[in-house]
Write a structure and sequence with these properties.
The chain has 290 residues and is of the alpha/beta class. The protein is 44% helix and 12% strand. The protein has an 8-stranded mixed beta sheet with strand order 3-2-1-4-5-6-7-8, sandwiched between helices. Helix 1 packs across helix 8, helix 4 packs parallel to helix 6 and helix 6 crosses helix 9.
Amino acid sequence: MTSDSDAPLRGKTILLTGASGGIGLATARQLAGLGADLLLVCRDATRGERARQAVQLSGPATRVELLLCDLSRLTEVHQLAEQVLARYDRLDVLINNAGVLPNALQVTEEGHELCWATNHLAPFVLTNRLLPLLTAAPAGLILTVSSQAHWLGELETSAARRNDPALNSAFTAYCDSKLANILFTRALAERLELTPATACSLHPGLVRSQLFAGSSWLMRGLVWLARPFARSCEQAARGIVCLVNGGAKPRYSGQYFANCRPARSSSSAANLAEAHRLWRISADETGVGT
């Protein structure tokens, strides 16, 4: 029988987005190995089921469930939240991991720029909808995966700017969304002050993953040149698992992390006035968080 010291996350339920590959899958396998029960959110049913089986092998005694959702569609994000709310009365950890970087600006059926919808609005909606479950846990935790790319981001998020190729590009949209991840976390931490829940954001490092597979040839070339300095998905996942397994202490709520340690963010990401402005923009665009 596995002891509690071998399975420190036994009894905890964790929801993880973007779990079908890359950092998400590596994180899920490590969390299952520590005894956590997992809700894996994936877009594709075939890849998702393959991931679920792989994660189950890493933690045979854990419960691993697959939930399907295209996070670029906020209607589906609401449906995902309804599923979870209907079946669970507590959620210990929410890991907003899923992210995209397309090769050109794209607009979703709902009228949002793709990076903004998937990388920021989806975590904003899902987190707000699931807050009752997270605050019902003894020490709920919300982790949102950002990036050092946030240093290049700006909070100029009007629909006209995001959807106008003359004013933006897919990469700048990605950087804007990663800045939003950190600002969202800072504003969220303020709202959680009187609850037992904690919110943190993190940079997983330069990772050899498929994130850049759909980006421009120039971006793929730069990433290829940087491969000798990049870490594996398993190494990046350890930083996330470290925060789940005690590294994200309540006193760090709102903090940005790298390598499981508090890290310096850009001055824009540290601006609480901008964090509050982002929250208002996001609430207006999604109808939640008001």
